[in-house]
Amino acid sequence: MRVSAFELNELSKKLIQLSSVTDVSSSSRKSRRAHFTAPSHIRRKLMAAGLSKDLRKKHDVRAIPVRKGDEVIVIRGQHKGREGKVLSVYRKKWVIHIEHLTREKVNGASVQIPVHPSNVAITTLKMTKDRESILSRKADGRKARATRAESA
């Protein structure tokens, strides 16, 4: 198939237009600023944790935002293997606090050890109707992408 110089020029113009439409910057500085100054409703999504293998198979979803009441297991870091219920999701500090994951201070007081949600896997979900709808929506999207990939 031969393409004239005019057609080639028009195609390149369209590609340039398409590439300049995006609102996402590839700048590290801007990406970091957007991440660390993100408002709470966006931090919720950024503070998602992967599901355990059996939950992943059951719901056909890879990850979901962590919430108070979920049961998790620490899969990375110094406390790897420790399990417990999520006591709080501290969005301002980008951490979660897990039941029985505490340390003693010098004065004898007990404090929660903060863990980043990316370092845990959810083993039991606290189910609500909103969460069920989120899981079904994510699973439907995953199935739609799979069928689109097969047909292409």
Class per helix and strand makeup? alpha+beta
* Percentage beta strand: 25-35%
Secondary-structure element series? HHHEHEEEEEEH
State the helical fraction: 40-55%
Major sheet: arrangement of strands: 2-1-7-3-4-5-6
Morphology call:
elongated
Report the span from N to C terminus. 22 Å
Global Rg = 22 Å
The strand count comes to 7
Chain-averaged pLDDT: 91
Structural write-up:
This protein is α+β, with helices and mostly antiparallel strands and 152 residues long. 40% of the residues lie in helices and 26% in strands. It contains five helices and seven strands, in the order αααβαββββββα. It is elongated.
Notable traits:
152 residues, alpha+beta, seven-stranded mixed β-sheet, 5 helices, 7 strands, 26% strand
Strand and helix layout:
Elements: H1 5-19, H2 28-36, H3 40-46, E1 48-51, H4 53-59, E2 63-65, E3 71-74, E4 83-90, E5 95-104, E6 110-115, E7 120-124, H5 129-151
Short description:
The chain has 152 residues and is an alpha+beta fold.
